[in-house]
Write a structure and sequence with these properties.
There is one protein chain. This protein has eight helices and five strands. Helix 2 packs across helix 5. The chain has two domains: about 80 residues, no CATH class; about 70 residues, no CATH class. The chain is α+β, with helices and mostly antiparallel strands.
């Protein structure tokens, strides 16, 4: 059997009255908290251990009881978390004060032009690096070669460059008449696998 319980229903069953915050404030506090790491387990305790411990050691389980239990041993950590988030909120305020129309336009163009180009046109960077490793020249494929799924050459060897996810696609073996290069883009690097 499967069923859903609305969050509001869970709160009602648990006797919670959710906090109400002004528009956008929780987004900013969440961002500040992420930057500060203020509520990470090493800062405020591992909730997945603390709450079960509370449930095991108490018979009258309630929100108020949980609050008292937690704050009895973690009040200092809560205050430290508040200070860290407030410091990051101040950093955000300072950053927001620097944002003007020109900066927003530059950011939009960087996102749409530079980051798209860099993210989508990874082939050239891969061929440059591979050619350095093999100590051979490279060239990008001609439109005629691209029609054969060839993206470029290192020396005389043709290569097709595909994202790692391409391996999972249902494709016929031998359909691409060249060696394969697979890549995975990460946040700070692109991992490349070259078929030998």
């Amino acid at each position: 059997m499967k069923f859903d319980i609305k969050e509001k229903t869970v709160q009602e069953i648990n006797g919670l009255v959710p906090e109400v915050f002004p528009k956008y404030t929780t987004q900013l506090m969440n961002l500040a908290n992420q930057n500060a790491g203020a509520t990470r387990p090493k800062q405020v305790g591992q909730m997945s251990e603390l709450f079960p411990e509370y449930v095991r050691t108490h018979t009258d389980i309630s929100r108020k009881g949980w609050e008292e239990y937690y704050l009895e041993t973690h009040q200092k950590q809560v205050q430290e978390a508040v200070k860290k988030v407030l410091a990051q909120i101040q950093n955000l305020k300072n950053a927001i004060d620097q944002i003007d129309e020109n900066m927003v336009e530059r950011w939009i163009k960087d996102l749409l032009i530079n980051k798209t180009y860099d993210g989508m046109y990874i082939q050239k960077a891969i061929f440059v690096e591979l050619s350095k490793m093999k100590n051979e020249s490279f060239r990008m494929a001609t439109p005629e070669e691209e029609a054969l799924n060839i993206d470029g050459f290192v020396g005389d060897i043709p290569y097709s460059v595909k994202p790692e996810s391409y391996k999972m696609m249902d494709r016929l073996p031998g359909k691409i008449p060249c060696k394969m290069i697979y890549y995975t883009k990460g946040k700070t690097k692109t991992s490349v696998e070259v078929e030998e």
